[in-house]
Amino acid sequence: MISSSEPPNQEVTKALLDWSQGDKDALARLMPLIYDELHRLASRYMRRENPGHTLQATALINEAYIRLVDQTRVRWQNRAHFLAIAAQTMRRILIDHARSHQYAKRGSGASKISLDEAPALSAQQASDLVELNEALTRLAAIDPRKSRVVELRFFGGLTTEEAAEVLQTSPATVLRDWSMAKAWLYREMSRSNEP
After folding, report:
1. DSSP of 35-104, one letter per residue?
2. Which of 6, 59, 60, 144 lies deepest, with the highest CB count within 10 Å?
3. 100: Cβ contacts below 8 Å, ≥ 6 apart
């Protein structure tokens, strides 16, 4: 059994590279190495959801796993890259779930939120998540890197350094992009809530 401490990056990277090269057994070696981190990531997402949410962290991991297994065209680089893709996959699953349950009605009295307040949300969470996703999509059309920074930091829970590694840029650039993206998203989401 793998301990809950961070898995050795070299083992994870080797398994990811083997998987990228078509080795189906590599995924079986990878999952025990990365499962604790995936569970931490899924738990972080689920803490932001309504208390009665029909998905549990384990179900979110399982659904993400099914989607990740189908990722045959991805050239995995390292642990941070894998976690970034896993975070993006989990985000999409929750957005799809929120949309399917019709939580995304605009103008339904949704409260305005900032990214810093988002982890403490309550009943409006699914609607706000969909609204944030839509704003992120608009930001991506203008500045894809800033959108990725938000995705990696907010949704993926990656540190500034990990996000910089995934984006192949400096931590200072990530911090600048994070700050500017939060301001842009706040303004954009405020506009969409105006009558």
Report:
1. HHHHHHHHHHHHHTS-TT-S--HHHHHHHHHHHHHT--S-----HHHHHHHHHHHHHHHHHHHHHHTT--
2. 60
3. none
Q: Are 45 and 125 in contact (CB under 8 A)?
A: no
Contact 93, 60 (CB under 8 A): yes
Q: pLDDT per position in the chain (195 positions), as tens? A: 334 444 467 888 888 888 888 887 887 888 888 888 888 888 777 776 666 566 777 888 888 888 887 766 777 888 888 888 888 888 888 888 777 765 444 444 444 545 554 444 434 555 677 788 888 889 999 999 999 899 888 877 788 998 898 889 999 999 999 999 999 998 888 876 665
Q: In degrees rounded to 5, what are phi and psi of residue 142?
A: -90, -45
Q: DSSP characters for 19-34?
A: HHTT-HHHHHHHHHHH
What tokens appear for 45 in the block?
A: 């997402």
- Whether 181 is in a domain gets the answer yes
Examine residue 17 and state whether it is found in any structural domain, yes or no: yes
Place of tokens 């995934």: 166
Query: Domain residues for 184?
Result: 9-192
